[in-house]
């Protein structure tokens, strides 16, 4: 059974930093396309960053230059370093492995029958 567990969320003031971690069991992250998504209240799920098996990375425009995704193969962990946090970054953040194409994320939620998903970790940024 594949399990993904996110950690590192919390409350921080604007301008601060957090580092999210996603640890997995049942699959090897090095062999999987990994992604971080987030969902704020009343907003659809958004892919904020991803890293593919070939090393290609993606960042949404809203986090580009502030967030960095990285893979720790030895620990089978994918991390998201979040700097210069803004109140607009407040959301529940989810880790996903073998994530689906964006056009398959049709119901707005951060879960899909395609791929593997964690339960999320809350990030709250106050102004």
* Helical amount: under 10%
Distance between the termini: 40 Å
- How much of the polypeptide forms β-strand, as a percent range? over 45%
Can you count the beta strands? 11
* Low-pLDDT residue intervals, each spanning 5 or more residues: none
Specify the number of helices.
Answer: 0
SSE sequence, one letter per element = EEEEEEEEEEE
What's the mean pLDDT score? 95
Q: What Rg is obtained from the alpha carbons, in whole angstroms?
A: 13 Å
Class derived from helix and strand content:
mainly beta
Shape label: globular
| Largest β-sheet summary | 7 strands, mixed
Quickly list its features.
0% helix, seven-stranded mixed β-sheet, 11 strands, four-stranded antiparallel β-sheet, 127 residues
Describe the structure.
- With 127 residues, the protein is mostly beta strands.
- The chain is built from no helices and eleven strands.
- It has strands at residues 3-7, 10-13, 18-25, 34-39, 46-51, 57-59, 67-72, 77-82, 91-97, 116-117, 121-126.
- The strands form two sheets. Strands 2, 4, 5, 6, 9, 10 and 11 form a seven-stranded mixed β-sheet that branches. A four-stranded antiparallel β-sheet has the order 1-3-8-7, with no helix packed on it.
- Strand 4 (34-39) and strand 5 (46-51) form a beta hairpin.
- The chain is globular and about 40 Å long.
- The chain starts with a strand and ends with a strand.
- The mean pLDDT is 95.
């Amino acid at each position: 059974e594949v399990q993904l567990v996110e950690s590192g969320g919390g409350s921080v003031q604007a301008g601060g930093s957090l580092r999210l971690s996603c640890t997995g069991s049942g699959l090897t992250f090095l062999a999987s396309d990994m992604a971080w998504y987030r969902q704020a209240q009343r907003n659809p799920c958004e892919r904020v960053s991803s890293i593919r098996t070939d090393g290609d990375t993606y960042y949404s425009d809203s986090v580009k230059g502030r967030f960095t995704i990285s893979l720790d193969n030895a620990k089978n962990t994918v991390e998201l370093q979040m700097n210069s946090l803004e109140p607009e970054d407040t959301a529940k953040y989810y880790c996903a492995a073998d994530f689906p194409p964006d056009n398959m994320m049709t119901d707005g939620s951060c879960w899909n029958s395609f791929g593997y998903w964690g339960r999320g970790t809350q990030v709250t940024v106050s102004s």
